Amino acid sequence: MRRNAHYQEAAPAALSGQVTVDLSAISDNIQALKKRTEAPFFMAVVKGNAYGHGLVEVARTAVKAGADWLGTAQLSEAIALRQAGITVPILSWLYLASQTSATIREALENDIDVSLGSVGQLEVLAGIAKRLGRPAVVHLELDSGLSRGGARKEDWAELVAQARQAELDGNLRVRGIWTHLAWADVPAHPGNLTAVAEFEDAVREAHQAGLAPELRHVSSSANILDRPEFHFDMVRAGLAIYGLAPADHLDPADFGLRPALSVTAPLVMLKKVPAGTGVSYEHQAITYEPRYLGLIPLGYADGIPKGISGRSVVNIGGRTVPVIGKVCMDQFMVDLGPDASGIDVGDTAVLFGDPACGAASADDWGAAIGSHGDEIINRIAPRLPRAYATTAYRCPDYQEPAAAGPGNVA
After folding, report:
1. Is 47 designated active site?
2. 300 given a catalytic annotation
3. Catalytic residue among 7, 35, 281, 306
4. CB-based contact 366:374 (threshold 8 Å)
5. Which residue among 218, 355, 356, 378 has the highest number of C-beta atoms inside a 10 angstrom radius?
6. Tens of pLDDT along 286-332?
């Protein structure tokens, strides 16, 4: 069959993207963050499959790098870590007590600490612990303004009184008191000082009720970098250990942090189109001159946001090229410009990764859709294979692209 001279087809085996996780970056990031705090304990938060990086792999790396604690949102994540042989303390904070008693029992049997933010939760935990014959180890959570988990300050006195009675009954042990700041990603916001003052009042009230918690913890990633006075006994590092910005005004590179996750895919098709060609559904982009288009075999089923079209770039062979046209379920197009020399089918397209290598970052992609890098990395679908590197990623040869001229119109 005769092919048009401007048409190339990919080899059949090339239809897949790849997620690569640089575990050495996670290790280095944790060590850099630990140097910024005098808190005795450091928690690495690995919820959401370690922000899409891989739960067990990241947890093991974090512990080896010096994390004293691990944090998960769901009990199933914490139990999976125990089943993988990880023995450091784990705190898990999101569960429906009335419907997950079997899972709670399994968590307690596996020495997993759980968050406690209501008398209703306390009653369920204490009942399970009594039947189990061992106390549930808990961290009392104060709602200091986020209006999410935890007890409001008007309910705090009852919670600590009930917690103390459960301790006396042998069904509970209060190891910690914690809160999450509503303005954690805006560290200078005055609401943080108000919330921390309420937290300190809550700790005093707990002591007055007879509780003796070992750990007070407030700070998440942004506060580790910006508010050392909030560090107390433990800090909880989430997004920063993955090398992304925990707040808009913080550049991870300024703190020696680098992204750990990159997403790549092969260029599976390259074609030249004339001026006036509509690209993808609804022709939201139209070429104003002859252009070369490249096809990337990833789409919104893989976690590529539809809103990225025309707002972000992909790196191919050292060239930065824009996403063009509406993102499809399994594929999207890039504009290679009027001259695609040096680019071939099978070349690797870097969607996002380490900016030091010339790639866009997940933070760049997040900003392009009015969000943040954490949404981007958590979108990546499980169907994309993960590869793990234990040595620092080496940037390929990279040349700064020439300034782009006018391209396409929507």
Report:
1. yes
2. no
3. 281
4. yes
5. 218
6. 999 999 999 999 999 999 999 898 888 999 988 999 999 999 999 99
